[in-house]
Amino acid sequence: LYLADADVSCCELVAKAMACGPGIKEMEAILCLIHKGMEDAAGPQRFLPVVTAQALEGSFGAGPNGDLSFANRFDLGIQARWNLTELLNADTQRRIGNSLVNQAHLTYADLKSKLTLAVQEARESIVSGREQLRLAEEQIKHAQTASELSDVRLREGIQGSSFSEVLMSQRAVAAARANYLSVLRDYDKAQIRLMVLTGCPCPACPMAKQ
User: What is the DSSP string of 23-89?
Assistant: First the structure.
């Protein structure tokens, strides 16, 4: 059962991991968010004031010519406020933002290098695992052949044959099968690892359109 295609070149697998690998989309979204925030902070909207409107209605005991009779009154006030602290600290905030951007880019580059190394290791494990599986299958066949010969020698009473020889040959078959299962387990792990690293097929993947 093939879970990942290790027959393609390592460059194609790495390109697929760079497009759809684990953590790639999340890091790209974080970088876009940071860049957008810095662009908004450096845009003209930082000079816009905070506008608030307040209304008050009620009885007011004052009138023209010193008249103290109460009458209904409605007042509307509009206020514009600028945050001078943010304007004065803009350079400091900009330096902090640039530091965050640099850290995010370093993290992104580190993630891509780790994905590249992991893809190469997984592909090499799959390729070598196929050869190990072939050798393990041949080992099982040779052990089974030897076990059958030992059993025939015992049944026909050939000189030198014994029950211990048959048991040893059967033990060799069991050991060969156990070795095959161990190699198969490592092979499947490498396939699953490569499948996870390259991500699920998506339109952004270069290999998804093939």
Answer: THHHHHHHHHHHHHHHHHHHSGGGG--EEEEEEEEEEE---GGG----EEEEEEEEEEE--HHHHHT
